[in-house]
Amino acid sequence: MVELLTQRNISLTSVDFVRFTWLNKQPDHEIVSEDDDDNDAKEEEEEDYDDIPHIKPVEDGVRYYTNPTIWVGVVPGTLTGALAHESASDILAYLNGLEVQNIDIAYRESIFSSLRAHGPALYPPVEDGDDLKDIIDNVSVALSLPIAGLKTTMQGTLGPYFHVGKKLYAITARHNLFLLNDDNAEFMHKGNVYLITWQSKSFLTLRSRPPSDSAPKKKVLVMGKPAFTNYLASIQALIGTLIDSTEYIQRTNTTFRNRVEAGTNVQESQAKLDENEAELLKTRRKIDKLKKFFVDIKKRWSKRKDRVIGFVAWAPPIGVGVAPHRYTRDLCVVELYKDKFKDMIGNVLSLGAVLVYSH
To answer: N or C: which end of the chain has fewer CB within 10 A?
Structure first.
């Protein structure tokens, strides 16, 4: 279809295969049947939920379906009626040759935009005191992001970030993403032409290298399945702890409130009651925020494809006593999808109460 349309120089934005349906509603009319009386009698009988048959939805009207339709999107203002007729004739002639009948062809003006292909973006780091401080690091752009290979079970952490041109990279250890029993050969993904080498003074430098035959893309994701499951469990555990705290505060507040009403140590009891009430509101707010965060994470991050953040660009063999400085080499360079790191603020390490920036 696309070839036939482009031969006519039609400015395409999309070609979809769809079918349309709608309900032709019945006109208003008076209900003649009086079977509701029977239903009233049945409702008086005690029923068990499990004994009630599944209720099928009803539609008040006749549903209409179109033929299967080739739905062509074109750039607004570029298609004439004559050109649409000619291209539709081309398509119908092709379908007739395949003995395919009863296919409609429809045109529409549309502008397409690319969907975010890599799932939700990572969160920015938060300051101390934020309600999400205790659980955000696993899905934020701070250093030590927990990672795993898409098809491996090892867990590791992502190291420092760096740019080459407009591309974003990060460094990790090779053993985080490659099986220990592999052939330990150099890995390079086609299209990545940068190698990292150690120079004197132990600086990392980049030199170009012509791309060669490439291995399949080795994807990297935030948290493997066990780590992600444990992450969700840790959020629920924190919520449970906070709920226990609110119950304790409420019991304590009852004690202070009774003292105030009884006139026992009123000033001190009222002060503690006010302090606890403020803490109770703060804790409940945190619980609500954590619950919303948990639902969002579970919904948008549970699929592995939505946690993919990049792929291995280059990984030299693991080596011991590597020249010239006889270091141990366990290195892997990961090219990152920049849309996942739209909140990137540089190499930032979260130390709990502070954020440490590296330049």
So the answer is: C
